[in-house]
Amino acid sequence: MPENLPARRRGATRPKPEPFVDHQQRRQRARDEEQVIEPAGEEIKVEVRLHQPAVHDIERTADEDERIAQETKRIHSRASKMIPKPAASASLMQSENITRTCVSPAANGGKEMVRPGASARDPTNALPSLRLSCSVAFVPTTFPRLNLILWRCAAIAFVLLLLTASARAATVRVFAAASLTDSLKEISAAYQRQTGDKIVFNFGASSLLARQIEEGAPADLFFSADDAKMDALEAKGLLVKNTRRSRLSNSLVIVVASDSALKIASAEDLGRADVKRVALADPKTVPAGIYAKAYLTKVKLWPVVSAKVVPTDNVRAALAAVESGNVDAGIIYKTDAAISKQVKIVCEISMVDAPAIHYPMALLKEAKEPAAAQKFLTHLASDEAGRVFSKFGFILRR
Predict the structure, then answer these.
(1) Residue 110, SS3?
(2) Pair type for strands 130-137 and 91-92
(3) What is the pLDDT, as a whole number, of residue 215?
(4) Among the four given CATH numbers 3.40.190.10, 3.30.70.660, 1.10.10.10, 3.40.50.10610, the one describing domain 252-348
(5) CB-based contact 220:380 (threshold 8 Å)
(6) pLDDT (average), residues 255-262
């Protein structure tokens, strides 16, 4: 043995060599193992692991406590940068939530190592490699990845909202007198754009519509051209109470084709020999024909004119008969004459002599969409709808 080497004392053990530490690799590993866990509720958990050489038998020291305190401060600082305006400051989690494990692959194959008999959850007996956690409040929009998720969630929610709104859009079925066709179509077009509800009409003679309702045809609203048909439905308990309202009135006129050479100045002229055929909506059942017959009866012209009457299914059919030239003249509503360029009004019947013309409307008891139907019924009674009815020549009833 060389003389310059000190003799080994009896019983002395060779010091355990310090393991080689690649500091660059260690720093990279620390960066890789520092991670942000997805936030739950209103907190984000920042988890950091500290690494030391694996030593089997070591007590917790003041230096270790200092390292924990320093790392906690570093977590606070990093969280403050990630979250510019946290709602609450970061705080170290409870000690029972601090996991202390050995993560060095050189020690026991990388498995958790504790002193014999010690609990793995006992921080005073665990190995010195540490894992610290803290909780901080977060502002979601500061996380790019989370921000993207939120935007996607918002987009999905918006689509679902549209689908829900579409699914909730109701279809309201309205049975209405033929003379209301043009005005109701214009009113419903604007209403559908505003509400998204779909309005489906069944136009025809009020008598025919009332009979269809009595027989169970699917309808939500009935807009009749006379009180008699509405009265019949009400007597059978087919109307929702307190929803009936008389909304409109109208007047009768005598019309001829726009190119006709007939000179008709009054109802008496309908009895002349050169007036051979007169179109009326069926005077037995259709309101427009019933009103015309009542007027002619009152002025004592019905016995003369009745033989010339050509009955039609509804008032629009009577208008079409005059337009086509199949009849010499016709008695129709003023509102129907106003929409045609193929006829001309030759006589307006005085409202003093003519019977009162009423257009009642009501919600039906068997309505499939009662809430939506009531909403549309309310709209029909509004000033906005009233302006459209007036434009088409109807007389508003208050």
Answers:
(1) helix
(2) antiparallel
(3) 95
(4) 3.40.190.10
(5) no
(6) 94
